[in-house]
Here is the input.
Amino acid sequence: MTPRSGINASSRDVRADVCVIGAGFGGLSAALALAERGAKVLLCESLKYPGGCASTFVRGGCRFEAGATLFSGFDEGQPFRKWIDRHAMDVVVDPIDPLVELRTSTMTLAIGRERGSLIESLCAMPGAPEASLRRFFAEQRAVADALWALFREPALLPPLSARSILTHVARLPAYAPILRVIGRPVRSVLARHELDRFEPLRQFMDAVLQITVQTSSDEAEAPFGLSSMDYYFRGTGHVRGGIGSLANAMVSAIERSGGSVRMTDRVHAIERDREGWIVRSRRGTTRARHVVANVLPEALERLRRERYHETTELAGLVASGWGAAMLYLVIDDDPSLPAQAKHYELVGDASLPFIEGNHVFVSLSARDETERAGPGKRTATCSTHVYAAKLRAMSEDGQRAYVERVQESMRGTLRARASELYARCAREETASPRTFERFTGRPGGYVA
Here is the structure.
């Protein structure tokens, strides 16, 4: 297909309607949506592969997920399913079931694709308050239905037009479940249903909230926490060959739609001028009417070489967030291991916070994904959250020692909760927030 954009990816000085900075999935999605609408789009990425923190990279001949990854958006009508079908992308999404297996010191819980099966599993546990569980999940579903419907329609999000305001007014009855829990933590909703002492549900809640909104049920805001529980039930699946397969397919779709993508083209400055923006990168200068920066606020301030109240405030919020410590494993395959791809949430001690190696999220490749590590081998990406602010306050030697302690805690959790995997570990690679900062350009290596 002949590009409509007129942008030459190797040109030293080009013009574009929109320059998108960063080929993480936010930048890829923005670039593809704009290119489909006929905009002249240029996407600049500093790495040699797309996907950002949700990418697939090669090390020692093996393909690893950068972060333990389950992706959503693959149900009918959802964004990735629409793009896969519209652009005939060579992407296979395996609808694995269960999606995740949660293992703690007191239980093993298979979390499948259907809400009903999860409810039945919890209700079947010893001492389960069945009536309370069913009432809680009915409320949880009502909140999730209202919020997920809202997020499917970006025009209903701020800034609001007169039309979107009228739409919201008409939908007020549907928002009633959200209004009942606004300003409250998830824990208060559990307490109202007399479920705050039912440990299986608490452990499930804390585990799913840690990988979705990166906090516990004590702190997560109820509307978002209850909605995030639906992550497993709304178009989530395993991308065959690694999430990088989807990222690469989106790059191809952008180019076929007339956009241009420049990998290994780090942007180092953006400046305002009378016609729009000047974007200065390693490969040259781009003049664009608009810029979409898929970067963290601190990185945006560096690009603008100015500080703004809004971005400084956002940067402070990000700095109080999370980094990740990683273990990348090559596993000797064995008939006792599941043939399909499998994802595990492992908790060492459920009475302690689900961070710093006490909680490990693991993504194991499928047996037939032989391109990942070769026949008879499989890859496993293991991640845990670490406090970014805590890490940043340390000296370089202190950071190194802290990350090593966290990674040793991860190994302990793996040995205790997934010994069948860790006993077959043939090779191990490690990574830290500094690794993410180096390879993705994210200040501090923040991942959430």
Notes: The two ends are 38 Å apart (CA to CA).
